[in-house]
Structure formats: C-alpha cells, structure tokens
Amino acid sequence: LWLAPNLVTFSGFLPMVVSYVLSWWAQPDFASPPPRWLALYCGFSLLLYQTFDAMDGKQARRTNSSSPLGQLFDHGCDCLACLSHHNMASLCLLPGP
Q1: pLDDT (mean) for 66-73
Q2: CA nearest neighbour of 21 among 80, 94, 95
Q3: Which of 21, 62, 76, 87 is most buried, judging by how many CB atoms fall within 10 Å of its CB?
C-alpha cells in the first residue's frame, strides 16, 4: 500500500486539532471537570497521533520518498501538536476550583 508520508502525518495531526477545538469549546476556562467523552477522545487522539507520527518516517524510508520538506512538515505538525498536548494536561490537572 503506497501512501504519501505527509498524508500519514496529516492523518495523525487532524484528530489532535479536533481535540484541541473540542476542549476549548467544552471548557474555555477549565472551571469544571471535562465531560468523560471528551477526556476519552483526547486520549484516543493522542494515541493516534503518536502512532502515526512514528509510522510516517518508516513509510518515507519504505517508499524512498524522504525529503527535507517532508521533515519540515512533520516537525511543524509536531510543534503545533504540542498546543494540544498542553491543553490535554490542563484538561486533566485543572478541573475547576
């Protein structure tokens, strides 16, 4: 199966973006505990992101399509995903007064 490595990266990054948006929609000020479905979705999206992030480099080497632009895209998605990681930590550690 041939998939572009950047597509693998982006497929793992999209659930992180959705979890970030849903977290801020459901709890903009972290004043109450998060809904259980949101916490489960955030955990699942983190699992998907880490799995796909590990697979994209292997896919690039397997298909011999590694490039500096692909590395830049991968590291850019990693940096933006850190926002969602911090948001998830706040979701768990700051559940209200």
Answers
A1: 87
A2: 80
A3: 87
Give the 3-state secondary structure of residue 22: helix
CA 26 to chain centre: 18
Q: Please confirm, yes or no, whether 85 is among the known catalytic residues.
A: no
Catalytic residue among 75, 82, 86, 96: 75
pLDDT above 80 for 74: yes
Which two three-digit tokens encode residue 30? 């972290």
**CB within 8 A of 13, min separation 6: which ones?**
49, 52, 77, 80, 81
The answer to pTM > 0.85 is: no
Distance (Å, rounded) from C-alpha 95 to C-alpha 42?
15
Plot region of 87 (φ>0 → left; ψ -120 to 50 → alpha; else → beta): alpha
Cα distance between residue 7 and residue 12, in whole Å: 9
